[in-house]
Amino acid sequence: MKPVTKFFLLFILPVFVLSGFSCVSRNAGGNSPSQGDLPQLPKAGVIHEKIQCSKNPELSYALYLPSTLSYRMQDTGYRIQRQKSGINQPSSIIRYPVILAFDPQGMGGLPVKMYRDLAEKYGFILIGSNDSRNGLPNDKISNILSAMLEEIDGRYPVDSGQFYTMGFSGGARVACLAAMNFPIVKSVIGCGAGFPQSEPSPLYRFDYFGMVGTADFNLNEMMELEGMLNITGLRHFIATFNGPHAWPPSNRMEDAFQWMILNAMKDNRIKKDERQINQIISTFKERIDTAKKANRLIEASSYCNEAIQFATGLTSTETFCNELRSIELLPEYKKQTDYHQNILKKESKEQQYLMDALFTKDLHWWNDRIKKLTASGAKTNPEDTLMNVRLKAFLSLICYSNVNAAMKQRNSDMAEKLIGVYQLADPMNPEPNYTHAVLLMQRDDTIQAMRQLQTSVSKGFSDKNRLLAQPEFEGLKNVPSFFDLVQKMK
Question: Quick one: which of 182, 183, 179, 181 has its CA closest to 165?
Fold first, then answer.
């Protein structure tokens, strides 16, 4: 039997050198277009799910412009204007911080919808690429990054001192890659994954705010990243939230917005605002008290560290430093931290064990193993429960990666076993059923393939374009039930 190549699709990004990139800058030279030639700004205060790049119409992005932008345009007679080299921008032009987001599935509208309220509250332009996604070749990612940075720089009223990127999973690595190679990117919000693996040292320095769910299979990677960042000296913070491998909830993402704003004040890129500083810092006192009362001492200490990181250079950190020292002296804190570290070590070994077992154990063994990962008793430590959730998510990921590799190699038997494990590990995920339908069509079993597709759609599969473009389903397009299924999809 031909072995299946092991790889991790969602959190390993190809390594490439961006030698062909140009460094974008608001001070770049060029002829100023006339008023009549200027592109009209999309309506502010609403989400635009697909806007084509001006110079690259094959590429698109989702967009949210804060409503204050339209008000200020009216008040100041604002216009987008690129000045000739050496001529200053008119003082009436008001520029805005911008975040360029990368989703691993190319769903640019997802982060824009999730964080539009934050963009409105803090006055950010929020943009999500519809084209950057996992699995693209190097040159394609290079072209997307170059085109998006040029589009933002040339079309929108962007403050070059507040240009940021964010991403989730593989998109987090793309966000880091942009910052490594473009000096205009001042900070990165990396969610659920760290830096591009095997990437050489960054050409430029940037701030980094990492976020990872306590049930995310990449928790270990993000904790290890913190140690690496301590060595490099990059200004950074790694925050956790209660959740799986996913974009963080809005209430936790707000910390990242605030962190970037405070850093801009520290660096004198924006004016210091004492009222805003005090509002942001005061919330940490409430969080620390709540975590301590619930005996979540690791969480309480993390909030102390976060508050210290936020406040340093702006206001006194003495209260939080004292609180942190008192927590760290508690015997219960040491007990919780020791258990947490042991869990992470155990999890790393379990991941390797599961990878090896994927190719050596049968479905009967996997059924028993996954039941053990799912079971939890009243006396189970929450850390163990979270570890098991992360292991199941990790297993789902490696199944997804390897089943596609097996199908490309036409290793039908291995693919079918991997799909079986995939379904056991992630029963509510529509992807195993979709993949099974593809495999069944390769065997010309249209009846069973349609059943698997119907199950996939019932679980939430909704990508019509992918379904219609799948070559294996070409023979189903004249089947009435297939047509009905497509019509029912959202």
Answer: 179
pLDDT score of 478: 87
Q: Which residues in 148-247 belong to E strands, given as ranges?
A: 158-168, 185-191, 207-213, 236-241
Given pLDDT bands bounded at 50, 70 and 90, which one contains residue 490? low
pTM: 0.81
Edge-to-edge strand ranges of the sheet holding 185-191: 47-52, 60-64, 125-129, 96-102, 158-168, 185-191, 207-213, 236-241
Tell me the percentage of the chain whose pLDDT exceeds 70. Answer: 85
CA–CA distance, 46 with 56 (Å, rounded to integer): 23
Burial of 26 (0-12, 13-18, 19+ CB in 10 A): middle
Angle at 456 between CA 454 and CA 460, to 5 degrees: 115
Q: Positive or negative CA dihedral for 395, 396, 398, 399?
A: positive
pLDDT tens digits, 35-77: 334 457 899 999 999 999 998 999 999 999 999 886 555 444 4
- Paired strand residues for 168: 191
Cβ neighbours of 423 (radius 10 Å) = 21
Q: Where are the alpha helices (DSSP H) in 409-478?
A: 412-425, 431-442, 446-458, 464-469
Confidence band of 135 (pLDDT split at 50, 70, 90): confident
Q: Strands of 14-157 (E only): list them.
A: 47-52, 60-64, 96-102, 125-129
Average pLDDT in the chain: 86
Phi, psi of 166 (to 5 degrees): -145, 160
Give me 419's structure tokens: 């799909």
How crowded is the C-beta side of 335, counted as CA atoms within 13 Å? 6
